[in-house]
Amino acid sequence: MKSLGMVVAVVAVLLFSSTGRAQSSAKSADKMYVLDCGQGHAPDESRWTVGVNVGKPIDISDSCFLILHSGDYFLWDTGISDAVAAMPDGWLPTNNPVTDIHWSRAKSLGRSLPPLA
After folding, report:
1. What is the pLDDT of residues 20-37, one digit of tens each?
2. What is the residue-wise DSSP string for 39-64?
């Protein structure tokens, strides 16, 4: 029984040490841009907190991430619809300010992107 325990311990050490080497040798992202892809304002936080903070307003930030990795770009999320950027008063999906999230976006995704080399 002791030899089985020793075998399990040796296998575990080998597995974890090789996994650690693989992760540490992986290249990280070269650059990451955080983009403002919209904001929301909800009149009642409790829709997300199940009965807590009933009637308490909450502001929501929608961020997008542009990642440069090994010469390639990857866009994580596109945010609130670009059409909202053209709406001067923002967007209420069901036109009910009592229950809706009021969405806004300062500029479209294309205008939010940094100059790319």
Report:
1. 444 445 678 899 999 999
2. EEEES-THHHHTTSSTT--EEEEEEE
